[in-house]
Every structure is written in C-alpha cells, then in structure tokens.
Amino acid sequence: MEYLEFELPIKELEEQLLKCQLIGEESDVDVTETCKQIQKKLDETKKDIYKNLTPWQRVQMSRHPNRPYTLDYINAIFGESFLELHGDRNFKDDKAMIGGLGKIGDQSYMFIGQQKGYNTKTRQYRNFGMANPEGYRKALRLMKSAEKFGIPVVTLIDTPGAYPGLEAEERGQGEAIARNILEMTRLKVPIITVIIGEGASGGALGIGVGDKVLMLENTWYSVISPESCSSILWRSWEYKEQAAEALKLTAKDMKRMKLVDEIVKEPLGGAHKDREKTFETVRDAIAKSYDEFKNLSPKELVEKRIEKYSNMGVYKD
After folding, report:
1. Across the 317 residues of the chain, what is the mean pLDDT of every consecutive 10-residue run?
2. What is the DSSP letter of 194?
C-alpha cells in the first residue's frame, strides 16, 4: 500500500501495530493490551486526518495510484455481462475512452468512461486517461446507439483533461467536445454521470452532461487543475495548494454551488481502502438514480435536463 505525505502518521502506527502483533505471535509475551492501545490511536488518527482534508489533499486522494479506475468499476459492477464496443467509425479506437453495454440486475446500460493506466506501459497505452477527438466521437456514437434502443447511459469521469497535442487539435478536439455537450443535452434517454477521480476541464465535460451527476467524496471537478492554475497566476507550481483552495473544486463545493447533484460517500481513507464497498455504493447509486428518471418521457427528460443546466450560475442580488 502506498501512502501520501499527509498519511505518514497512519503508516507509522500501522507499522507499530504490525510489529506488536508479530511479537505476540513469536513469543510468550502478552501484548494484547498494547496492540489495543495502538489500534485505538490508529483509529483516532485516521478519523482526525480524513475528516479534515484540505482541497489539495483531496486532489491527491483522487490521484492515488491504488485508486480504482473505470475498468475496475466496469468489471466489478457489470462482470461478464459487459460487452466492450470500439471505434468512432471515422479515425480509430481511442484507448483512453472505454465504452460498452452491461447490466445491473435486469437493466441494461451503455457504460462510457475514461481509463488511466496502472504502470508506465499501460499509462502510455491509455494516453494517461486523456482522450483524443476520436474518443469523444466514439462516446457520442455509443450514446446515439443507446438512444436508438432506449438504453440509459452511464458515464464515469476520471481525466486530467482532453489530450492537448497538435494532432488532437488538427482532428478537431474542441469541436468534438462541443458536439458531445450539445448532443448530450438533448439525448432522449437518462444520463447518469459519476465523477470517480479527476474531473478536469473540457475533457470531463465532453462526457459530463447528465440528468444526475454524482461525485465521489475524494474527487475534484474544475475548469483547470491546481498546478496549471498556479503556473498561470504565479508562474510557478509552488502555489498549487492555494490554487486548489481558491478553485472550490471539492465535492462539497460543487454540491453547495449546485453543479453536482449528490456526493457519494467513500470508505474511510478513500475508495482504494475498501474497493468492494466503493463498487457496491456506486452500483446502488446508479440504480437508484435511474429509478428517478425511468418513467419520464423523452420530452420531459430533455426539458428537465436543459432547465437544470440553464439554471446553473443564475443568482439574484
């Protein structure tokens, strides 16, 4: 298990607890009471650290190397029922964007999400979770197929942004994202969006328009990353913590500003600490969200979605 810098006190106590248990197993010394005291202190330290996370620490949690990615959710929620679909029927298959059909219970869903890699080789293969235009066009093709057959759409957001390379711009990155946003506002089937990690810029918005937008507790959603914001405002990445605070990018901030609809609780210590619990919570949240919209007519669905997004940013003096 890898630890972030602010988690080092937890690491020390866990190591102490392990040593204490080993002493008890390898000798006749009764260390039960000592182990209980260490465990109690460990539990208190965890609660104290995780209930007081700063915005920057939540950004770090969203990027934790052990955190589950899109394919982890797909395999856990859909299992063998998942059928991956490939290609945008125009250029090629984008490996940073995963899409396909799967079932939760008896209900079929079109599942679309950004996929990061686990090591150097897979990160390059998945382009670090940054989709090219063909990735967004693949996503839109799958959404249109779902609409044709009356299948609800689920999107999982976890990207540092759309790929900013020259070739992506040449193939129309901006147009592809804008087209997706337009088409998603008027898609005639329910759309459930779940932010499972990083939700950065237009890369996230390209699959982020939903009737219900759910955001895991230790994720972030913003027009720009804290590092990039810091480099623009202060010409240095050293102020990324201040930038994270100013950007109001946490789940609580997003919920307060009514930019997301619901915060999905994570296990203590983050989604990676108890993956099975996280998968179960997300699966239940998707099914519950679908129940809210399944009886609406296509016209009602589109009207409510457009009204929801039209009201964002509206304020009164």
Report:
1. 90 92 83 90 93 94 94 93 94 96 95 95 95 97 97 97 94 96 97 96 95 96 94 94 96 94 94 95 96 95 95 82
2. E
